[in-house]
Amino acid sequence: MQNPGFWDNPQQAAHASQELTDLKEEIVYFERFWQAVQAAQSQLSTLVEIQQNAEKSEEEALRELEISLQENVNQLSKDLSLKEREVQFSGPYDKLAATLSVYSGAGGRDAADWAEMLLRMYVRFCEKRAWPVRGLHEHRDEEGGIKSATIEVSGKYVFGTLKHETGVHRLVRISPFDANKRRHTSFALIDVVPVLPKEAVEATDINPQDIEADTFRASGPGGQYVNRRESAVRIRHKPTGFVVECQSERLQGENKARAMAMLAAKLTALKEAEHKGEIAQLRGERKDVAWGNQIRSYVLHPYQIVKDHRTNVEVSNITAVLDGGIDPFIEAETKI
To answer: Where are the coiled-coil regions (predicted)?
Structure first.
């Protein structure tokens, strides 16, 4: 970085600078981790020494020290687990931020409500990890719920963490919209793509003749300026059928640029996929959002359980899952 011509190539320089920052963060992490290990080791030595010479009157103090030591060890184990998971994120885009889209499928009003529940679940998951979430697009159903919505999630290893959530999610429950209280099955599709850096977006070759761009008024809350003008943009890529929308910006040109970046990410992910199974997963909107294609089932009646059909991981506390507790599923899928 101290070479005179280092900044002659801004893109390469920015990449090197980011790499340096990442390496420094790794060093700081392991230095702090090692200090914590040494502190726990010292604490353990003290505990053993006290136990060897302790009297009955000191048993309460010993128990408190044991509890403190166990809490420190548990925290170390948790930190190490997170670091081990990061090592498994070896994909070219795993470190990047991501956009997550949800689309309601078969199930009518229940499906729109289910899509909104899923969106909340992922927002809560991101909030627990302190990942900033920004809404890019929301198309609400006239009777309630959402037909489609897209959020952008910032942070490190966001795409690597969420990419396996792409697929059809199935809900079974007693419908709150059925006067006869019958059991209904609803479906929604989740699609996750990385937020590519500007140079990667510019490098993606998209033929202008292959896209159809429409403008429309932004729906939902967005301020009077947004709702008075056709600032929202919808882009359809004819060869693949990919559809992207953005309405988060005030100006139409900014929404179009962000939508084109989302399309570039989808096309890049499709190009990188090597196996037919991966391609089928990435091309989310072309898959039937209905029975037989689900990756995970959320059953609220007649019993309560969430089951991932790829890893066979099951969680009975469905309330915790819908409140963002999807870590068991993500951890199992990451280890495959």
So the answer is: 40-86
